[in-house]
Amino acid sequence: MTRLLPISGIVTAALMLVTVGAEQQPPPTQQPPQPPQQPKEIVTTITAEGGVPRIAIPDFIALSTDAETVSVVKTIAQVLWNDLDFEREFALIPRDTYSTIPAATSFNEIPFDRWRELNADGLIIGTVQKTGNVVRVEARLFDVKRATSVFGREYNGSAANPRLYAHTISDELHQQQRGLRGVARTKLTFDSDRDGDRVQGTVENRGVKEIYISDYDGENQRRITISRSLNITPTWSPDGRSIAYTSYRKGTPNIFISNIFQGTLDDLTKSVGEDWLPTWSPDGTRVAFSSTRDGNPEIYVANRDGSHVIRLTQHPGVDTTPTWSPSGTQIAFTSDRSGTPQIYVVSADGLGGVRRITSESYADRPTWSPLPYNEIAFASRTGPGFDIKTIDLASGQIRQLTFGEGTNESPAYAPNGRHLVFSSTRSGKWQIFTLSRDGKNVRPVTKAGNNQQPDWSK
Amino acid sequence: MHTRRRVARSAALTAVVLMMVVGLACGRKKPPVERPIPPPPPAPAATAGRPPGPPEPVAEPTVVPPEPVKEEGISASNLDELNKNSPFKAVFFEYDSAEITTTGQAALYEDAAILKKNPKWNITIEGHCDERGTAEYNLALGERRAVAARTYLVSLGIPADRLRTVSYGKEFPFDPGHEESAWAKNRRAHFVVTAMK
Q: Contact A227/B69, CB-based, under 8 Å?
């Protein structure tokens, strides 16, 4: 419903063009237009005897000889290798181990014997052809044993971002081969002080923070706010087109929404009280946040346009840091009503009681997992600093994912629930990292400045 | 009558042209698309003979930063001078606490006297935390500290509408160090004069 932002955009475009065409000239016949015939897909999956299929991805074949194509064929292969490696559904054979295998010049001349010698179960090979400013990319997955193609896709577009072709191929491959929703085209958002700008209108020397986005692998980092103030705690809207965050641009913290492809800004909370930590309902129609508008930090829910604000919590203690359940019917949050910050759950309509779910020394920043996992990740004090833990909501079982390398805060799930993003001081300053839900495969996302409070697009 | 119909027709035409323009413009901007190609029949090297249809464009929308919002700053440069040599005493807090200590009460007593002597001054009370709590919870803890300081000042007779609060959590430490001497300085309610009417 929410991931294929680009695809749904295309569908709209196609429909619009059809409409325009119909008005321009009447169709030659009375027959309704037929949708293009799509032959039934024959799904064949790569398997390996007793293990994870071993996949090789040599450079794609350049069908045009310009320098850009020659560079794109390497980029696509390397990025696709990284993307597939990230999900660990396949064993990716290191690319430098097959540099001696002669490069194919077409899909018809693949030296399958050589790939069998390498014990490759699958071979991903593709072509890139540039005509004017348009590139055409074709990708195939071959079953090496049978020398047959089991997956084929073709793409067309600009050469400006070759990584996007690799990400798209990776997501399609995971879907077709594994029924898995990959994350190669998902994005991250976080706050950063990397620009070194100073806050205006204060005698203290204070650095600003602005909101950034990046691809899931840390590439294409871009700044999306320019307010020269403190902008923190960004979260992605489910459709990936807007980011809600806490901004001090008017002096006090309030919730703003940047519609990042239109370049427009919505003021959600209209400067009522102090407001923090917005988080989108799964259907994108509402935003939960914490606010002091009634004198004490409580959890509120507003419609996307700021209307119909309802209050969910009623307690003299601190209630903050809300997160929605995947169904949108419950909200988990942090409260110190017991004396220390712990995670609680309340129904999203504010009716019914509040249920405590953690008994840590200090727990904050709950993030509810997507389905099929039924757990909440949070930061837990484990010593002088924090570590990332998860709690299974059915069994109450706690798993610890990080173990005291620096302090680790602000976990957020990837949309398929198999990875988390978090901020950590393990390499010195605050940086963003991703890791698998088993705690393995920690990968850095940022390097410059301090980067904190990440969220993963849905 | 004639004229009106012509106007109506040209309006309709304009609408059609507009829709075309909009449609084309959107079409150009639209992001990636893939077109599934069925795998060829399971025969070795059976890749020929698939007539390629016109594939659709792959492109990402460009991210545009939102328009900057103008600062609501106070222009008086003498405010800066005043805050640089602030007459106000900060209130310091115990670890993970928003309770005003006896030292804090003494500081607030002096601060209240300054506010009474300068009835035109409005102040913002900033709540700050050390780095040991989480960034998220500290936003609330800082608010607690600012509100505790304000409540005490109000109890000393300062009108509440002269005292705004803002929490910065652990975002703006006064001392960037990572030891108790730094943390103690960073757990504070800090006073800034924001208006002299």
A: yes
Q: Which residues of B touch A13 (CB under 8 A)?
A: 23, 26-27, 30
Q: Which domain holds residue A260?
A: 188-456
CB within 8 Å: A156 and B55: yes
Cβ distance B174 to A379 less than 8 Å, yes or no, reads no
Q: Give the mean pLDDT per block of 10 residues along chain A (458 residues).
A: 38 31 39 53 70 95 93 96 97 95 91 95 96 93 94 92 96 96 98 92 88 98 94 98 96 96 95 95 98 96 97 96 98 97 95 94 98 96 97 97 97 98 97 97 97 98
B58 to A168: CB separation less than 8 angstroms, yes or no: yes
Identify whether residues A127 and A25 lie together within a single domain.
yes
State both tokens at A112. 């399958």
Tokens of B147: 């509100």
Size of interface A-B (CB pairs under 8 A): 254
Distance CA(A261)–CA(A434), nearest Å, equals: 25
pLDDT digits (tens, 9 = 90+) for A333-372: 999 999 999 999 999 998 889 999 999 999 999 999 999 9
Identify the DSSP state of A323.
E
A263/B61 touch (CB, cutoff 8 Å), yes or no: no
The answer to whether position A320 is within a domain reads yes
pLDDT in tens, B80-112: 888 988 999 999 999 999 999 999 999 999 999
* pLDDT over 90 (residue B145): yes
Complex ipTM value: 0.87
Q: In A69-182, which ranges are E strands? A: 91-92, 122-131, 134-143, 148-158
CB contacts, 8 Å: A259 with chain B: 66
The reply to whether A152 and A202 lie within a common domain is: no
Contact between A133 and A159 under an 8 Å Cβ cutoff? The reply is yes
Distance from the B178 Cα atom to the nearest Cα atom in chain A, whole angstroms: 11
State yes or no: pLDDT of B57 exceeds 70.
no
Using alpha carbons, select from B38, B35, B34, B59 the residue that is nearest to residue B50: B38
Q: Is residue A126 part of a domain?
A: yes
Q: What is the pTM of this model?
A: 0.82
CATH assignment at residue A437: 2.120.10.30
Please report whether residue A86 resides in a domain.
yes
How would residue B195 be classed by pLDDT, with cut points 50, 70 and 90? confident
In 3-state terms, what secondary structure has residue B33? coil
Tell which residue, A237, A436, A243, A398, has the closest CA to residue A324: A237
Please state the domain count of chain A: 2
Q: What is the C-alpha to C-alpha distance for residues B89 and B97, in angstroms, rounded to an integer?
A: 19
CA distances from B184 to A406, A443, B98, B128, B188 (A): 21, 34, 13, 11, 8
Q: Which residues of B touch A318 (CB under 8 A)?
A: 137, 140-141, 144
Identify whether the C-beta of residue A304 lies closer than 8 Å to the C-beta of residue A312.
no
- Residue A168 sits at the vertex; the CA angle it makes with B59 and A148, to the nearest 5 degrees, is 130
What type of residue sits at position B148?
A: A
Predicted local confidence at residue A21, as pLDDT: 30
Whether residues B20 and A156 touch (CB distance < 8 A) is answered with no
| B23: chain A residues, CB-CB within 8 Å | 13, 16-17, 19-20
Q: If DSSP codes are grouped into helix, strand and coil, which group holds residue A444?
A: strand
Instruction: Please report where in the chains the tokens 């204070």 appear, as a residue.
Output: A206
Q: Is there a single domain that holds both residue A335 and residue A354?
A: yes
Q: Which residues of B touch A36 (CB under 8 A)?
A: 53
- Residues 6+ positions from B26 with CB-CB distance below 8 Å: A12, A13, A16
pLDDT at B10 over 60: no
